[in-house]
Amino acid sequence: MNIMLFHSTYGLRPAVRDAADRLRAAGHEVWTPDLFEGRTFDTVEEGREFNESIGKEELLKRAVLAAAPYSERGLVYAGFSLGAAVAQTLALGDERARGLLLLHGTSDIAANATVDGLPVQLHVAEPDAFEPDDWLSAWYLQMGRVGADVEIHRYVGAGHLYTDPGLPDYDEEAAEATWRVALGFLDSL
Predict the structure, then answer these.
(1) For the whole prediction, is pTM greater than 0.90?
(2) Residue 124 neighbours by CB distance under 10 Å
(3) CA distances, 114 to each of 65, 69, 117, 171, 187 (Å)
(4) How many Å apart are CA 12 and CA 37, to the nearest integer?
(5) How many CA atoms lie within 13 A of 155 on its CB side?
(6) Do residues 26 and 78 touch, judged by C-beta distance below 8 A?
């Protein structure tokens, strides 16, 4: 599979590169665009402040420009938290998208979005202050309405970015379970 993997609001941290290496070791080709142009952050607040300073339009423009040279190959879009939101937006707008792997995040769905059975897998903590139950229920229903084939995996007691060993949210058991399921998902595409 050809995978475009987007980082979280913390920036392109070692955990994202490690995830890409894990995917490559499983036989996938992976790109990890740096939407923050080399900036990384120690707190979610710093990352959000920077993200807001560049704006959603610019962030999406950077993501589209990063993915465009590879989209003809039929990409699987993937991302962590903010990067998952970016990946979702791109996947729902790319008729050649092969799949969508969301780690720790989702996004609003455009009213005119339609896909034909796009395979989508979401991995989130339970509970997750950034992805509350009522939001996830509405998101799931909307994704179904636009034609996506969605599966959700919840990890009780894990923190929001539980796959990043460099953050306090890290949960090794939940992270390894996530990667086992995610790799199976990618192999099925």
Answers:
(1) yes
(2) 24
(3) 22, 23, 9, 35, 24
(4) 9
(5) 24
(6) no
Joined tokens for residue 171: 């949960």
Rounded Cα distance between 12 and 8, Å, is 7
Q: How far is CA 20 from CA 38, 67, 126, 180, in A?
A: 17, 15, 25, 14
Residue bearing tokens 């923190």? 159
Is the model's pLDDT at 107 over the cut of 90?
A: yes
What order of strands is seen across the sheet that includes strand 2-6?
A: 29-31, 2-6, 75-80, 99-103, 119-126, 149-156
pLDDT in tens, 130-179: 999 999 999 999 999 999 999 999 999 999 999 999 999 999 999 999 99
Domain boundaries, the chain: 2-188
Look up the CATH superfamily of 2-188.
Answer: Alpha/Beta hydrolase fold, catalytic domain (3.40.50.1820)
